[in-house]
Design brief:
heterotrimer, A mainly alpha, B mainly alpha, C alpha+beta, A: Four Helix Bundle (Hemerythrin (Met), subunit A), B: Cytochrome C Oxidase, Chain A, 15 helices, 64% helix
Chain lengths: 243, 564, 327
């Protein structure tokens, strides 16, 4: 098993090794673009056909939590970039700290997502599983704001008038919501796992100004996952918010 | 066989297998299952794709036997529907797509560019394990209820109505997709960063160009089929509605997403075979390929344009007429680079010094059969004609001409051509030539009648048919039995040659690529000293190491001209 | 020769001659190139056969003029093929104004057809010759495809969508109808017939005059074929449904273990609510004919099935499972 930083057998020079790693990561990210692309395509078409249902679905999402998550992720990209810089200039302790900060922020993101998913589960908004778009309006919880419930009921009745199949189309929205954010969360979990490994390597002093390829590569990956969220957030959370 | 039409000579040096090479450098099952040597991984793939070829072949045999009578006498309709589905899935995803890239590509790309291995050897091994894991899921699906949706998985049949084992199958293909993606990634990076000194892009063998173009399709296309099949699986498991109209979904969306990959997939299957032909013809005509940069450029053009023609599979779904016009137009465009290649290969034969060795016979067979397959594509791209022949046996004949007549012939030609390099031994030439001819004849008898069947209107995927179609069906089945023989013979004599074949030496043909400048079989690290390339590809003139005279067939044109 | 070993189907619609001509045009182009390349390859093979063991070929790298020629010429030919095909297709996709509209519903595994006056057919379409016909098609379940090779037309039938296609039959006769998009188990027998009649005959048929048959037994037997009962209820017991030979009056073993007598009520229920009683060893796949048969037609069918009681039943007997597998 090679120790990180050594020249692997198939390469002639360290520079060739680094070039390969970078190109490899960029090529991999392009495959990820196409992978998410299919879902974005499906989203676009369904949003076009079923705008009403998508608006209703989007309005059930908690804008505060979604916004918080967006800020968390952007911050985590900042800390990730800082750790790449720190490894470039040989600051070992700072490299590790920034990596830890990134991991903490990433975990916080996942935690918020869990809260959001639980909410959806409670409101019968999980597709294929007793899905009912107007469940919350019909069965408000004791601590729900009555004005909010009234507003929701009104929105729903207008929406049902426009689209008699609202339930089925809203289920499509939520299938995409869970599919896209779920796939994104899966990528975050993988990223978190890689960060744990990176932190350990950094603590062992493996990264120097001449060799910090893993930090850079995983940094690239992390930024990509962040960018996917930056597209997901408006597309899922911000439909029809101006109403 | 020492006639001038054979490359082997009676006075050739008697070679010995080198002391140490990649096959015997380490022993034991662990050294194979945990290998990171691209050559060993190539052999792992060789065994697995051959296994799936058998699986798909057995299904094909049963199909052809069943279709000998109009009512079908071998199996029930339900079983027949599973047979053609599983034949398609096994052959396309587990044989055709991996075959040349994962077997010949893995073995040869590092050797051809002068590298010690691929850029990411461990990821290469991971690719193989993902292929095996995907294969296990699919075999599980086959043996527990089978699969009866057609390899195209059209919804809502596959996502709602089918009672077969769809979910494990789509999961298996999903996992296998990542095998392809990682292989493509590996090749792209390797070809960019690991070429030996002096190996510029335009000195690369055309096989490498073909692998590069194929890898681009692997990378950009496969993720889309992955997510699409995942959605079908989710739809089945959780009753979601992406593609189910009863829940607001759209079956046509599935078709768009599916064909966005599956059309470029057919170029994955043919481009590497074309790359093989581009290596064989110069070798056995002993002259440079005619139009090197045009062939290289055509490979890239096919890969790129191939991404923009997918909806020619959907001309009759009710899609917009404007879309149909655009896709038909682009489908004609994509035919042009293939035509350019055929013209260039033919021109390479002009004033060559041609021998009839088995790889050359396969190359010729490829040209003939790919010609028919490609030309019949022009019928299908034609909107007015497609109305009549869409989803008939015409389509079946067309794609089998390309995939079997083209890709499989290319694969077998490549196996024979590089067999000495892989195994250190020569195969028995006479038997090999006979097999090639048997294959070619059996193939034509099997599939040519199907063009006629198609124009007469016999639809695809029919377990029974009107009696007026029987004669052509029987002809087709007869051909299939000959074809089967043509496949079995190489399996037998290639294995035989491992022990009893003549020792080949480093460069038996001889050929000009870097892979022939090392031992047969090569050492694990490929080259003892990193080569430095100072010659142009397919240059037989200024290569004293090939030990060929400068007796040129015909006269040199004066003054010598060329395009590169 | 054409009758004994046909290479193309009959030409029975306005599109057929054009499509065949287009096909011949493309065949001619392809034949030219195929023959030229094959000839060149074989010729070069023999002319430039290696004479000397160590000789090499003449190193010619390429020729810009040739490359240009064989890019431009195929491109021009390709555009010609594209253009002609496009013209035919655009015509096909735009139905003319005054068409006879026929509604078609595809479902697993039959074609339900409705004529303009409401008259219904199953797996059959009667049409007048020399009249523009438009089919408006939908699917009840999966994707099917309505295909008539003699007309050179087909169109997918997609659930959730309406697809239309048009053509003009030009020759009276009976032509095969196929389902041309794989749709499950009985895709291959989801076939039927298009009957093209002279316009007067069609009008007569449409008003029901040609359909009435006095004798219920004869009418019943005809219906048994027309409604596609015969495709599943094969008399030898090897079909999707049980044989009806020797059935009437006998005891029938059901899938849930009960035994019932096959009387008139049982037959009527089996036609209208087939899933009420499933015969042991068979799948619940028979479609209901509720709303598709008049009372007279049900009576005729019952009479016919009753008349089969003296036919020898298949070896395994009605009501028991057929031998596993088809043979």
């Amino acid at each position: 098993m090679h120790r990180t930083g050594e020249l692997y057998g198939q390469f002639e020079t360290l520079e060739q090794q680094k070039e390969s790693a970078a190109l490899g990561m960029w090529v991999f990210l392009s495959t990820e673009v196409l992978f998410f692309g299919g879902l974005f395509m499906t989203y676009t078409l369904n949003r076009h056909y079923y705008g009403t249902a998508f608006g209703v679905g989007s309005n059930t999402l908690d804008l505060k939590l979604g916004g918080l998550n967006t800020v968390i992720l952007i911050l985590s990209s900042l800390t990730m970039a800082m750790s790449v810089w720190a490894s470039h200039v040989g600051k070992r302790r700072q490299t590790t700290s920034f990596l830890v900060a990134t991991l903490v922020l990433g975990t916080a993101f996942l935690g918020v997502k869990v809260i959001e998913y639980k909410q959806k589960f409670d409101h019968h908004l999980v597709p294929g599983y007793h899905f009912q778009i107007d469940y919350r309006a019909q069965h408000p919880a004791p601590n729900d704001d009555p004005k909010e419930i009234e507003a929701e009921k009104e929105e729903l009745s207008k929406a049902f008038a426009k689209d008699p199949d609202l339930n089925a189309h809203a289920q499509l929205y939520f299938s995409l919501y869970f599919g896209m954010t779920g796939l994104h969360a899966l990528h975050m979990i993988v990223g978190a796992g890689m960060l744990v490994w990176l932190i350990r390597q950094s603590m062992l002093g493996r990264f120097t100004p001449t060799y910090n390829t893993p930090v850079e590569m995983i940094g690239l990956y992390w930024h990509f996952v962040d960018i996917v969220w930056i597209y997901l957030f408006p597309l899922l959370y911000l439909i029809d918010r101006h109403r | 066989m020492d006639t001038p039409t054979s490359t082997r000579t009676a006075t050739a040096t008697v070679y010995k297998i080198p002391e140490e090479h990649y096959l015997n450098s380490t022993y034991g099952i662990r050294s194979w299952l945990l290998t990171t040597d691209h050559k060993r991984i190539a052999l792992l793939y060789l065994f697995s794709v051959t296994f799936f070829f058998f699986v798909g072949g057995i299904f094909a045999t049963m199909i052809r036997i069943h279709l000998m009578t109009p009512q079908g006498f071998l199996v029930t309709p339900e079983t027949y529907n599973k047979l053609f589905t599983m034949h398609g899935v096994a052959m396309i995803f587990f044989f055709l797509i991996p075959s040349i890239p994962a077997v010949l590509g893995n073995f040869l790309v590092p050797l051809m560019i002068g590298a010690k291995d691929l850029a990411f050897p461990k990821i290469n091994l991971l690719s193989w394990y993902l292929y095996i894991l995907g294969g296990c899921f699919v075999l599980y699906s086959f043996s527990t209820g089978g699969l009866d949706t057609g390899w195209t998985f059209y919804t809502p049949l596959s996502s709602v109505y089918s009672n077969s084992a769809v979910t494990p199958a789509v999961l298996g293909i999903f996992i296998n997709g990542f095998s392809s993606i990682l292989t493509g990634l590996n090749f792209v990076v390797t070809i960019h960063t690991m070429r030996a000194p002096g190996m510029t892009w335009f000195r690369l063998p055309l096989f490498v160009w073909a692998q590069y173009a194929t890898s681009i399709i692997f990378i950009l296309g496969t993720p889309v089929i992955a997510i699409t099949l995942l959605l079908v699986g989710l739809e089945r498991m959780f009753h979601l509605g992406f593609f189910n109209p009863a829940l607001g979904g759209d079956p046509i969306l599935f078709q768009h997403l599916f064909w966005f990959y599956s059309h470029p997939a057919v170029y994955i299957m043919i481009l590497p075979a074309m790359g093989v032909i581009s290596e064989i013809i110069p070798t056995f005509a002993r002259k440079p390929i005619f139009g090197y940069s045009f062939i290289a450029g055509s490979s890239i053009a096919i890969a790129v344009i191939g991404f923009f023609v997918w909806a020619h599979h959907m001309f009759l779904t009710g899609e917009s007429v404007y879309a149909a016009l655009a896709f038909s137009f682009l489908s004609y465009l994509v035919a042009i680079p293939s035509a350019v290649k055929v013209f260039n290969w033919t021109s390479t034969l002009y004033k060559g010094s041609i021998s009839w060795d088995t790889p050359m016979l396969y190359a010729l067979g490829f040209i003939g059969l790919f010609l028919i397959g490609g030309l019949t594509g022009l019928f299908l791209a034609c909107l007015g004609l497609d109305i009549h022949i869409h989803d008939t046996y015409f389509v079946v004949a067309h794609f089998h001409y390309i995939m079997v007549g083209g890709a499989v012939m290319g694969y077998l030609g490549g196996i024979h051509f590089w067999w000495p390099k892989i195994s250190g031994r020569l195969y028995p030439e006479f038997l090999a030539r006979v097999s090639a001819i048997i294959l070619f004849s059996g193939f034509n008898l099997t599939f040519f009648p199907q063009f006629i069947l198609g124009y007469l209107g016999m639809p695809r995927r029919y377990h029974s048919y009107p009696p007026e179609f029987q004669v052509l069906n029987v002809m087709s089945t007869a051909g299939a039995s000959i074809l089967a023989l043509g496949y079995l013979l190489p399996m037998i004599y290639l294995v035989w040659s491992l022990k009893y074949g003549t020792v080949a030496g480093p460069n038996p043909w001889p050929s000009t690529g870097l892979e022939w400048k090392t031992d047969s079989p090569p050492p694990t690290e490929n080259f003892l000293v990193t080569p430095e390339v100072t010659w142009e590809p397919y240059d037989f003139e200024t290569r004293p190491d090939l030990e060929l005279d400068h007796i040129v067939a015909g006269k040199l044109p004066a003054p010598a001209h060329g395009d590169d | 020769m054409q009758a004994q070993f046909p290479l193309i189907p009959e030409q029975a619609s306005n599109f057929a001659p054009t499509v065949d001509l287009l096909m011949l045009f493309i065949v001619a182009i392809c034949l030219f190139f195929a023959v030229a390349i094959t000839f060149a390859v074989i010729y070069f093979f023999f002319k430039y056969e290696r004479k000397h063991q160590t000789e090499i070929g003449v190193p010619i790298h390429g020729d810009m003029r040739l490359e240009t020629a064989w890019i431009v010429v195929p491109l021009v030919l390709a555009m010609a093929m594209f253009a002609w095909g496009a013209v035919v297709y655009v015509d096909f996709r735009h139905s003319p104004g005054d068409t006879l509209d026929i509604y078609v519903v595809g479902k697993q595994w039959m074609w339900k057809v409705q004529q303009p006056n409401g008259l219904r057919e199953i797996n059959e379409v009667h049409l007048p010759v020399d009249r523009d016909v438009r089919l408006i098609m939908a699917s009840e379940d999966v994707i099917h495809d309505f295909s008539v090779p003699a007309f050179r037309v087909k169109m997918d039938v997609v659930p959730g969508h309406y697809n239309t296609m048009w053509f003009r039959p030009t020759k009276a006769g009976r032509y095969r109808l196929y389902c041309s998009q794989y749709c499950g188990t009985n895709h291959a027998i989801m076939t039927g017939w298009i009957t093209v009649m002279e316009q007067g005959d069609y009008a007569a048929w449409l008003s029901g005059a040609a359909g009435a048959e006095a004798n219920p037994l004869v009418a019943g037997e005809k219906l048994f074929g027309e409604k596609a009962c015969i495709t599943c209820h094969l008399s030898d017991g090897k079909g999707r449904g049980p044989s009806l030979n020797g059935l009437y009056g006998k005891q029938v073993l059901l899938a849930d273990g009960r035994t019932v007598t096959a009387d008139d009520a049982y037959i009527r229920e089996s036609i209208l609510q087939p899933n009420a009683k499933i015969v042991a060893g068979y799948q619940p796949i028979m479609p209901s004919f509720q709303g598709q048969l008049t009372e007279e037609q049900i009576i005729a069918l019952t009479a016919y099935i009753k008349s089969l009681q003296n036919e020898p039943p298949p070896p395994t007997g009605a009501g028991t499972a057929p031998a596993s597998g088809k043979k």
